[in-house]
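Long-time lurker. I teach an intro course on protein structure, and each term I like to show students one example going from raw sequence to a predicted 3D structure in token notation. This year I'd like something fresh instead of my usual example. Would anyone be willing to generate the tokens for the chain below so I can use it in lecture? Attribution to the forum is fine with me.
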Amino acid sequence: MLEALGEVIYTFRKDVDGPPEALVHLFLGSKEDPSQTKDQHNLTPLELFYSDPKRPLICAFNFPAVALTLGRRRWSELRETYFSLTTSLTCGVRRTLAASLGELAKIIGMDNTQKDLLSVWWLYIDSEDESVRTKALESLYDIIGVVGNEMGRSLVQGLLTRWDGDTFRGWREREMVLKNIVSWVNRIGLGSALVARGLLLKGLEDNVAAVREAAIVAVSFSFPFPCFCAPIVFPRSLRCGFYFHHSERSSMIFVVTYDSWQPRQSIEDV
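-- Reply from a regular --
Happy to contribute to a lecture. Here you go:
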């Protein structure tokens, strides 16, 4: 029954009065787990339903559908249960919630997202589990679309800070940042170009080839933005900039220093 409860609630999405309160209460569950205070053999069927060990994961998976059915005006009825789920130590629950942050943000709107979801997003960006961090990164584009340019810039700036702090220990998540940086900048606007340029520099200096290649491709797509090609300061105060050359056969990124032109890497058929 628990597996189907979210789908049942969702069938009421076009109903003016929404789903029956009894169904919503069944989904939200009990504030206290009955199995923590009573012997398993003495639990009622309803208490067994509330204490199902699969409940957190199932509820996390169904939360966007339930939130969509109730609408943003009833988010206050869901937020306590939502926050309770976000504190779960189960990786599957956290990964599922991280993956749905963008969709949930679009459902509950800017004010609720800024007040309630951004703290959850940062919680998952700082997670010890790479898969949770990756899912949170995947949701950023949709989150920026909800919270607006100014807040979006601060989120991208925070990613640069986390990269500096060695949060992104897996090379795939660093690659993901670079593969998405252009779409984030396009959504936020040129005000984020300086921060994005810092992420591109991190990628070009990365010790993993796939990350460096993602940075090079990102620079090529960033070429129309002059802010990306402005001089920046490398470690040891080496001043340089990125320049992109394209021909029918190949594309090449040049790292330009104060006294030389050096081809960094070329990619055929970009």
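Some talking points for your students: The beta strands are 232-233, 239-246, 250-257, 261-268. Residues 1-147 form one domain.
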